[in-house]
């Protein structure tokens, strides 16, 4: 009996799990060794302790382009042009590098600028041209400044808009406090639920990225519903963890899609974009 026939014969016996064990051990050890070496390199090279940044794999970037294409109903080539646009924006990249280098908390930030899924937020803003975006959760302000960059390009093409960025931390948003990006950003400090209740302009694009608990996420979508403009787009940064936006979409008669990003060279498995429209 040759080796293949012998293996197939063993696979049909009670010895199969024992015979397969070395192969299974090799597979999991190889996978874990890769995660460990990526983690060790990250511990030495990165300074970030939360809200990690990284680039997307080419495959993940392409899937993101298709997500935006479907949601915004524009050709995927156009979306790819928007993704290229933000990545090639040297003015923005230089501003971010300088702001991080001069920040008091620079010891907890990386010098390299990596936008991860935020390039998808950028493309959605470029495609849908919102007059008013609300982002909950600002942290350093990387998302706010990416949204602002898209709004500035829209304005140059005759479609102005502003972003209201909400955070409970008074130190949040330092990356978004420099012109020209700051000219379209309204930073509001306070609990997001109170700030949403105080909104006095219709919201065309809403992004949840604050307290990622299920309860808080649900409360934000409930609170913002009466503030939304017709045809508003809802985004969540929490889609790999909760089903809140999917349930909200179902309750309110919207469509829903979820995208899970894949980081390059990072131990963190990535977040995602949930979108209801
Ligand atoms: C993941 S970070 C935001 C990341 C940011 N959107 C970005 O693109 O980098 C979460 C932020 O939510 C803020 N936050 C937490 N609970 C909040 C609340 N109840 N209201 C407003 N902001 C809150 C935190 O202070 C933190 O800065």
UniProtKB/TrEMBL annotation:
**This protein's record includes keyword Transmembrane:** no
**GO-annotated molecular function:** methyltransferase activity
Q: Which branch of life, at top level? A: Bacteria
What's a GO biological-process term for it?
methylation
Q: What is this protein called?
A: Class I SAM-dependent methyltransferase
Query: Is the keyword Metal-binding in the record?
Result: no
Could you list this entry's UniProt keywords, alphabetically sorted. Methyltransferase, Transferase
Q: Name one Pfam family in it.
A: Methyltransf_24
